[in-house]
Specification:
Elements (H helix, E strand, L loop, with lengths): L1 E6 L4 E6 L4 H10 L7 E4 L5 H13 L1 E6 L2 E6 L8 H4 L9 H8 L1 E5 L12 H9 L3 E5 L2 E5 L9 E3 L1 E2 L2 E2 L1 H11 L5 E5 L5 H12 L3 E3 L6 E4 L8 E3 L4 H14 E7 L7 H9 L3 E4 L5 E5 L8 E3 L11 H10 L2 E6 L8 H7 L4 E5 L2 E6 L7 E3 L3 H12 L4 E5 L2 H4 L5 H7 L3 E6 L1
Parallel strand pairs: 2-16, 3-15, 9-12, 19-20, 23-24
Antiparallel strand pairs: 1-24, 1-25, 3-5, 4-5, 6-8, 7-8, 10-11, 12-14, 13-14, 16-18, 17-18, 20-22, 21-22
Helix pairs in contact: 1-2, 1-7, 4-6, 5-6, 6-7, 8-10, 8-12, 10-12, 11-12
The chain binds uridine-diphosphate-2(N-acetylglucosaminyl) butyric acid (EPU).
Length: 423
């Protein structure tokens, strides 16, 4: 197992490029199951989650070749049963359910287990696929969905759960509906940019989807889907994470290959916290620098276009060193505060209660051995380590390798003092 040693105090400088979005790549790779012709997906980040997805596709009968950011798929003899040993490694593998069901008439997938950031049920995915006519059986930890004879049938489906619409649930139903008979309307659909990128990919292989990016998505079923070359959108969460690094540990850095319209929440919050954020005219490059009088801030996570839950841990790290009181509430995953306990070991003053962290900022952080608990929590620990005194040893680095492409190399490029070592 690898760990990252971050020695705080270096002043970051220069620029870096943001990778393609992990959370867009995963459903797009899954959607290649639907295609009857080869696809070329570019800017797929080299992270362990996309590697798991590539392995799952290979086992399902999609011939996949990967070289740097390019994944070439050629669906051959698709089988309906996903291998448990791979599926269990990544919760997002649940998004193969919709495409497998639509393409083969059957999908057998292991039910995802618990997750450190919360309960994460899949009831809405199941409800949506059942509405398209699937028969659902659960046995031995597996879920088997079977399409009716003659295939799935379009329906009107509401994807709203108690915490808002589900992202991968919307993806699953949208993918399944592309090959259903008739029209499907997804109400209360998730409108995250990653859902839009998936819809754009599906449309370019012949699907008929309109309204992606709004709360109502309409899908006219088609007979079959072809192939295409597709470029994945930039990773807004990776971009946001480096923007925070820029205000916490630099005198100014530039982050390239970003998309401004998807970073509005991060931009607004950093400005509200007293920092400098300047996009270029095209909105694809941003300069960030620390402001002279930073102040505490309030965050409540919400479905897009609200503040993303995937950015709250990184903002907690910023809050820890910002004078004043900051309050961060996660309405999507109220248990997602494991990073706070670890940051307290570094000297942060944080109280967590009922899905909310109250952070009395301005503490001088000091390096400590800490444990990564999930992807974004690990990113928060790296950020805290960059401005802590001394060495922070972040173990269980595999969490961060799930979603940040070559993070140690990118940080080294910016002048950080980081070292990946074997434990
Ligand atoms: N929910 C239900 N029932 C369901 C599905 C979800 O009640 O059937 C609830 C969840 O418990 C949660 C809320 O709905 O409270 C939203 O969950 P959602 O289904 O949208 O999450 P997801 O699709 O499984 C994606 C991202 C997550 C991100 C969430 C929320 C991918 C691969 N994952 O997960 O990303 O936090 O949306 O934006 O796209 C990450 O990248 O670190 C990450 C966890």
């Amino acid at each position: 197992m690898d760990k990252l040693i971050v020695t705080g105090g270096s002043t970051l400088k220069g620029s870096i490029n943001i990778s393609g979005s992990k959370n867009a790549s995963l459903p797009i790779l899954a959607a290649t199951i639907l295609a009857e012709d080869p696809c070329i997906i570019r800017r797929v980040p080299d992270v362990s989650d996309t590697n798991y997805m590539v392995q799952i596709l290979n086992k399902l009968g999609v011939h996949v070749e990967r070289s740097s950011g390019t994944v070439r798929t050629n669906p051959e003899n698709i089988i309906s049963e996903a291998p448990y040993d791979l599926v269990r490694k990544m919760r997002a593998s649940i998004c193969i359910m919709g495409p497998l069901l639509a393409r083969t008439g059957k999908a057998k997938v292991s039910l995802p287990g618990g997750c450190v950031i919360g309960d994460r049920p899949i009831d809405l995915h199941i409800r949506g696929l059942e509405a398209l006519g699937a028969i659902v059986e659960m046995e031995g930890g597996d879920i088997t969905l079977t399409a009716p004879e003659g295939g799935l049938i379009g329906a009107t489906i509401n994807m709203r759960g108690k915490s808002g619409p589900t992202v991968l649930g919307t993806d699953n139903v949208m993918m399944a509906a592309t090959l259903a008979k008739g029209t499907t309307i997804i109400e209360s659909a998730a409108c995250e940019p990653e859902v839009v990128d998936l819809a754009n990919f599906l449309n370019s292989i012949g699907a008929k989807i309109s309204g992606a990016g709004t709360r109502t998505i309409t899908i006219e079923g088609v007979e079959k889907l072809g192939g295409v070359e597709h470029y994945v959108i930039p990773d807004r969460i990776e971009a946001g994470t480096y923007m925070i690094a820029g205000v916490m540990a630099s005198e100014g850095i530039t982050i390239n290959r970003v998309s401004r319209k998807e970073l509005t929440c991060v931009e607004e919050k950093l400005i509200e916290a007293g920092h400098i954020v300047k996009f270029n005219e095209a909105g694809d490059s941003v300069y960030v620098a620390p402001g002279e009088n930073p102040v505490g801030f309030q965050i409540t996570t919400e479905p897009y276009p609200g503040f993303p839950t995937d950015m709250q841990a990184q903002f907690s790290a910023l809050a820890a060193i910002t004078p004043g009181i900051s309050v961060i509430k996660d309405t999507i995953f109220p248990q997602r505060f494991m990073h706070c306990a670890e940051m307290k070991r570094m000297g942060a003053n944080i109280e967590v209660d009922s899905g909310q962290a109250v952070i009395h900022g301005g503490a001088a952080l000091s390096g400590a051995p800490v444990m990564a608990s999930d992807l974004r929590a690990s990113a928060a620990l790296v950020l805290a380590g960059l401005c802590a005194k001394g060495e922070t040893h972040i173990s269980r680095l595999y969490h961060i390798d799930r979603g940040y492409e070559h993070i140690d190399e990118k940080l080294l490029q910016l002048g950080a003092n980081v070292q990946r070592v074997r434990e």
